[in-house]
Design a protein that fits this description.
Hemocyanin, N-terminal domain; mainly alpha; about 60% helix; elongated; about 80 residues
Amino acid sequence: MSASNFLRDPLLSRGMAIPAEERAARGLGGFLPAGVRTYREQEECAIAQLRKKATPLDKYEFIQRIQNMDERLYYALLARYTVEW
């Protein structure tokens, strides 16, 4: 699977949580920022952005974008922060 296809697959991609070793093995150099974030850091960043959304529609659109990019992160947010939505 090509690097770009891997990153586009919401079931496989973990965004910035992909360790440096796996990035090198999959040929992802240049496709992702140099920094690596843990999944917990990504959750905290996403929930902070979600909390800034003013309307339910804005929140829905934001969370759907996350689901389309990274289903693991989507379900982690769903499990941890459902009450806030």
